[in-house]
Amino acid sequence: MRDSFILTGILSILLSTGCTSFRSPYEPKQTGSLKGTFKGDFTIGTAINTDQIREKDATGGKLITDNFDAVTPENIMKAEVIHPEWDRYDFSLSDKLVAYAQKNNLKVNGHTLIWHSQLPSFVRRMKDADSVRQYFTNHIKTVASRYDGKLESWDVVNEALEEDGSMRRSIFLEKLGDNFVVEAFRLARQASPNTKLYYNDYNIEEPAKRAGAIRLIKKIQDAGVHIDGVGIQGHWNVNYIPLKHIEDAIIEFAALGIDVAFTELDLSVLPNPRNTIGADVDQNAEYDAKLNPYTGGLPDSVQKKLTVGYESLFRLFMKHSDKIDRVTLWGVHDGQSWLNNWPVMGRTNYPLLFDRQLKPKPAFYKIIKIKENYSVNNQNHQKNARINQ
Ligand code: G3I
Q1: Catalytic residue, candidates 74, 152, 159, 183
Q2: What digits encode the pLDDT tens for the residues 106-136?
Q3: pLDDT per residue as tens digits for the range 259-309
Q4: For a substitution probing ligand 1, which of 266, 333, 338 has the most ligand atoms within 8 Å of its CB?
């Protein structure tokens, strides 16, 4: 009796603190899975964190393998983790990731070789160009060659552009000059000829930045260097999803003869204190309760906006599925999203397709339905075309 009393007490504490081990179980494949639904259209992926790579959450793990056919490590392949010191690499988590993916038949999208952010401190301290060049070369050669053919793709360079389409002021631009992106792709291709190579950035659907991305990709191609695709990150807000720009970007990037992927899709429902768009990780603002309106749950009206947002995006993705290689969500469920802590720490956001209890949200069911209707309409269209012949 006393034992069961203690047990009930522990259980209620765990539940009230949101302990993930006591989530109500995810019920898989009730009405289709994401990967089954979009099979033959594009790969569907998710970003995963360290606990998920270590398989510490059986329910979440089942959700991942049921719904996704690709994973991107949210942080553990970034330079500060994988290359913490000049002559020391730490592949423990990335090797685990590759093993986990192989076991579960998941493709891995490597993220990321060259990025100005999350650099190890020894690089941030570098003053002379020679050291930066040596780091840059060694890093790409060592990391990319280790996983050649074991990864589906690499985000070779991440976020090298400013909003106006010019090159971002970064340690790489400053010390290596604006050819560093071409050089990164050249080195990555030599080290990893059996993995697809992508340029990845946010807001590159916006006209000025898109023009900059096109210039950059052409520069790589004109140098005779291999590039397979471009990743549009896709960090949008339910109040601003630039569908026309996104469609133009898909068409214009595909016209360069490369694949298009949506690599970090999520839709914030919260206000951005500075009214900016995108995902500049250096942005941050003070917490203010007014900026965190949905701590008690998401109102129906906002849930609807989220559903409509995902619906319109997936309609567009279906329309251009011949040009789109992959759509990856940036996180598995709302509780895990980086958007709970950016650009304001400690908020409650709802940007993904699965909620904090790992339950599929209305947006999940909606996009599955779109595909079912899309298939029926296409069959009717083809049937009518045959009849009219
Ligand atoms: O590594 C420390 C850890 O030692 C410490 O215990 C913990 C305590 O807070 O912090 C850990 O670092 C955090 C790291 O994520 C790993 O969890 C950082 O504070 C936090 O800033 C970092 O955020 C990541 C962010 O990139 C940082 O650059 C997000 O999880 C990740 O989702 C986000 O991903 C980026 C893409 O790589 C590129 N595109 C934009 C996207 C969203 O910002």
Answers
A1: 159
A2: 999 999 999 999 999 999 999 999 999 999 9
A3: 999 999 999 999 988 878 888 878 888 888 999 999 999 999 999 999 999
A4: 338
CA–CA separation, 187 vs 206, rounded Å? 29
Active site residue 159: yes
* pTM as predicted: 0.91
Q: How much of the chain, in percent, has pLDDT values that exceed 70? A: 89
CA of 371 to the centre of ligand 1 (A): 33
Cβ atoms of 238 and 302 within 8 Å: the answer is yes
The CB of 74 under 6 Å from ligand 1? The reply is yes
Residue 259 DSSP SS3: strand
Name every residue whose Cβ is closer than 8 Å to that of residue 255 and which is 6 or more positions away in sequence. none
Q: Give the separation between CA 151 and CA 8, rounded to whole angstroms.
A: 45
C-alpha span between 80 and 63 (Å, rounded):
29
Collapsing DSSP to helix, strand or coil, 321 comes out as: coil
Closest of 186, 177, 319, 205 to residue 265, by C-alpha: 205
Rounded mean pLDDT of 365-386?
77
In the three-class reduction of DSSP (H, G, I as helix; E, B as strand; rest coil), residue 337 is classed as coil
